[in-house]
Amino acid sequence: MGLRRGLRRAAEEDPMTKHTPGPWYACGRTVSLDREGLEMLTQVARVTVHRGEITGEAAEANARLIAAAPEQNAALLSAPEPGPWCGTSKAGLLYADWWRDIRGAAIAKAEGR
Q1: 87 with 54, same domain?
Q2: For the chain, what is the HEC assignment?
Q3: Would you write out the chain's pLDDT as a tens digit for each of its 113 residues?
Q4: Which of 63, 73, 110, 113 has the fewest CB atoms within 10 Å around its CB?
Q5: Do residue 13 and residue 3 come from a single domain?
Q6: 83 and 103 in one domain?
């Protein structure tokens, strides 16, 4: 299954997903959606520069980060829970707890919780 089909299927199966399915592409400061069969790209977001607080280079880096969001979200949603490979040592258990916390926080933020 291709990346585009996998992202669209994940978005359709997840009732919490309200964003435009990816993949998204950054071109300069604009984030666009590749619409199959259309000649134009549909804009998803545009990073703006206000009063010189953000340089053009930083704005383009922000656009790339935004464009990566659907794939990053899909990766987090499909990442397995820490398993026996963590072991029962204190370090392994701390890692498992850390992974659950950081993964859960990132998913909650993406879902607006």
Answers
A1: no
A2: CCHHHHHHHHHHHCCCCCCCCCCEEEECCEEEECCCCCCCCEEEEECCCCCCCCCHHHHHHHHHHHHCHHHHHHHHHHCCCCCHHHCCCHHHHHHHHHHHHHHHHHHHHHCCC
A3: 455 555 555 555 554 557 788 888 888 888 888 655 444 568 888 888 877 778 888 889 999 999 999 999 888 888 888 887 777 888 888 988 999 999 999 989 888 88
A4: 113
A5: yes
A6: yes
> What tokens were used for 10?
């994940």
Q: Which residue has the tokens 């909650």?
A: 108
**What's the CA gap between 112 and 77, in Å, rounded?**
15
Do 39 and 91 fall into the same domain?
Answer: no
- pTM higher than the cut 0.90: no
